[in-house]
Structures are given as structure tokens and as C-alpha cells.
Amino acid sequence: MKCLINKYISVDTLSYKTISANKATVDKQWLLVDAEGETLGRLASKVALLLRGKRKPNFTPHVDCGDNVVIINAEKINLTGKKWDSKTYVRHTGYPGGQRFTTANEMLAKDPARIVEKSIKGMLPKNKLGAELFRNLKVYAGTAHNQEAQKPTAINLNDFK
Predict the structure, then answer these.
(1) Kind and range of the H or E run holding 42
(2) Do residues 32 and 155 make contact, with C-beta atoms less than 8 angstroms apart?
(3) Is 120 exposed, middle or buried (0-12, 13-18, 19+ CB in 10 A)?
(4) Residue 17 burial by CB count (10 A; 0-12/13-18/19+): exposed, middle or buried?
(5) φ and ψ at 99, to 5 degrees?
(6) Taking the model in full, what pTM does it have?
(7) How far apart, in whole angstroms, are the C-alpha atoms of residue 26 and residue 28?
(8) Stretch 40-62: mean pLDDT
């Protein structure tokens, strides 16, 4: 018995093409996140994933395919343990001996949105793409925000794992 093989069977190669997103094909949305009662690190890691777009099926590592995120109630975040007094933020003026330290309590009193911004920025890539992704983030201390015209969709971060 001979087995005959049809050598004229071809595979449709166009159906196996890998799809790569670019600026023209990316679907960006506006999302509204309420930070009231959220723990800072958990909030920041979930928002960083939304900004990066890693939850989308067409995620491409070198393209900004994430969403625009608006965070409200930044002054109502939580820090666990004694971090309000022991967590320090370090900056440098650029002059000799110019190292300056600020605690989380002092930064909350001065600008509550900056605590959230610094924690999210630390979770984004440290390159041009990370700077571009950070521009898609808007953080507000209170409930009022300037993005009503974009009609952001309110999401609950607890729905993500």
C-alpha cells in the first residue's frame, strides 16, 4: 500500500500574521479612577498597567497603546504601617550638600497629587516611552477635574486582579 501525499496543499499564510500596533491603530480611552481608600502601591501598580496598555490584546512593547487615566481624590490615599512618618522622598538641588528629604506627611500637606504621580512614574519604563506614557496621566487632589469634555469612564480597580 502506498500513501499518496498531495504536494499541492498550501497553507494560507496571511491568516497567521502577527499584528503589531502603531499610533494609527491604537484605541485609546479615557478612564476615571477614584483613589479614595486605596493603598498607594496597589493603586500605582494597577494604574501603571493601564497606562502601559498591558491588559489589551494588541499590546506592543515599543508603542504607547495604553489608556489616558484621570485620578481623583489623591489626598485620600492610604499608606500602611508607619510610612506616613518614615517614608522619605529624596531630591537634590544640584549644589554640593543640596540633598533634601521630605516625609510622606509633609508631601501630602504640600501637594497630595505628587505622591501618587511619583509612585506611578517609578513603575513606568525609564526611557522616552515612559515619559510619553506619563503624559497620559492626570492626578487631582479633590473630586473636581478638568477632563469632563473627554467623558472618562469610571472604573473600579478592585475588579482587576
Answers:
(1) helix 40-52
(2) yes
(3) buried
(4) exposed
(5) -75, 130
(6) 0.86
(7) 6
(8) 95
Give, as one character, the DSSP assignment of residue 154. E
Q: How many CA atoms lie within 13 A of 129 on its CB side?
A: 15
Mean of pLDDT values over 35-41: 96
Q: pLDDT by residue (tens digit) across 75-123? A: 999 999 999 999 999 999 999 999 999 999 999 999 999 999 999 999 9
DSSP string, 61-120: TTS----EEEEE-GGG-B--TTHHHH-EEEEE-SSTT-EEEEEHHHHHHH-HHHHHHHHH
Query: Are 91 and 52 contacting, i.e. CB atoms less than 8 angstroms apart?
Result: no
Domain covering 27-81+113-159: architecture: Alpha-Beta Complex (3.90)
How high is the pLDDT of residue 157?
92
CA distance 142 to 101: 26
DSSP-assigned letter for residue 34: E
Q: How confident is the model at residue 19 (pLDDT cuts 50, 70, 90)?
A: confident
